[in-house]
Structure formats: C-alpha cells, structure tokens
Amino acid sequence: MVYGSASFWTPMGIAGVLQYGFEIMIRGILFDKDGTLLDLEKTWIPPYRQAAKYIADLAQRPELADRLMVVGGYDPDTRQWTTDSVLASGSNDDVVRTWESEIGFDLTREKQEYIRSRFFLSSVQHIPIMDNLGYLMHEIQSFGVVLGVATMDDESSARTMLRAFDLHHAFEFVCGADSGHGVKPDPGMIRAFCRSCNLQQDEVMVVGDSPKDLHMARNAKVGMAVGVLSGAHDKSQLESDADIILQSIEELPKLLESRLLNNRVPA
C-alpha cells in the first residue's frame, strides 16, 4: 500500500496487519519536532555552526569547527547525517557533552549556558517542513485525534515554535528532554502523553524522522510507528522499527483515511 513515491509498508508493519487485522484505532498522534514538523537542516545547522565556531575559538583551534560538526553526526561537506547523530536526535546537553569530549576540557557553566542560549535564540527562527503546516495540522485534527509533540530539544523551544505557527491551541501535550519524562528512546514521553490525554499506549501513533523516535515507539508498544523521510535519516535507517514510512507528514491524512485505521469522525 503506497501513499507517495517514497512511502511503503515495512515488514514489521505488514506483520502487524496480518496479526491484528485491518482496523487500528488511533486516538492520539505524538509528533517529533525537528525533521518532522520543522526543516531540520534549515532550522538547526546555522546555530550548530555558530556554536561549533564559538567552541573552536575557545579552544584556540578555529579549524576544529568542522570537526565538531562531524563528531556530532553531521558532515558539512556531504551534508549527510549519521544514524546516531547527536545533533539530529540528541538533547542540547548531549551536544555540549559530545563537544566537550572532543576539545578535551569542560566548559564553564557560564559558557555552557551561553551555547544553550545560542541554540534557543537561533532555533526559534523556525523553518516549517512545509508552507501550509497549520492547515495540515487542522486537517489531521479533523479525524478526532489528540495531538502532541515530544522533542529532544527543550520544552520551551517547542512551545515557542507552536506559538509562532499559531498551533499552540491544537496541541494538547508538549514535552522536551528537560520536561522530566525521560529522553528518547525510553518510553517515558509517550507514557506522559497518554496520562495527560487519557489515552492507552496502543491508541497512539508516533511520527518521527529518527531511529530514536521509532525505537521509543516500539519500547512503548504504541499502535503505529510512522517514519518520515523529511529529516536526517533514510529508509534503511528507519525501517527496522517503523510500521510504515512516508515521504513527509503531508501524507498523514491519506493514511488516516485508509481502511487500516478506524479514525473517521462521523459527519
């Protein structure tokens, strides 16, 4: 079953359909933020480059800036991300610790906070994954599902993004790596979403662009794990934990309309 040129059911997804039949009741959708709702590269590469240059200058090794990007899991020359890229799917603290390990000394608390502030101030210039993101979210809402965001960024950044797109009223749950629900790929963020919105874990669809998003979904035993190719990872890096892989979230309405999901709200 294909929803777009790059979309396909994975073997895991087909096995689930064969085991459970052709109706899965999805009542909540938990989205990753960067690479799923936002253009990962346009939103984050500029602040990451600025921070890498700042740290390289502190180390008095300006040539180290590109090396810090590579260590973080992004090659500036090829613009390719590694599967375990901390820049793509780690927390801000993870990024700082990774770079400290590379330069060989710990940054002072003041300098760490300065870097985090650069991440926040730069990344609030959010670049959506698509121009009509607001319309798409309202279309998805029309299927009667509760929407949430779970990000490895800070919660405040996610809330700022939703306000910027006038979507803060559409999302009933928002959490980040600093929200106290654990970090991906542990299932804590999904459990918190379910507690907050009165959902069962098998009623949740998780949508994300990284292996950590989908592994989190598996750890929580959600109803459906959806990978999207709009972020840092290709299908070979996502298919082991995804039920289906879509080109982007633009294809979600077609999936929600399919006979596999029993979601349609009566007219």
Which CATH class of the largest domain?
A: Alpha Beta
**What would the average pLDDT be, to the nearest integer?**
88
The helix/strand class is: alpha/beta
Helix content: 40-55%
Number of separate structural domains: 2
Oligomeric state of shown chains? single chain
User: Strand content of the residues, in percent?
Assistant: 5-15%
Q: What is the CA–CA distance across the termini?
A: 26 Å
**Which architecture of the largest domain does the CATH hierarchy give at level 2?**
3-Layer(aba) Sandwich
Order of helices and strands: EHEHHEEHHHHEHEHEHEHEH
Q: What is Rg?
A: 19 Å
Largest sheet, strands/sense/barrel: 7 strands, mixed
Indicate the low-confidence ranges by residue numbers: 1-6, 14-22
- Helical segment count: 12
The CATH topology of the largest domain comes to Rossmann fold
Kindly state the number of beta strands.
Answer: 9
CATH homologous superfamily classification of the largest domain: HAD superfamily/HAD-like
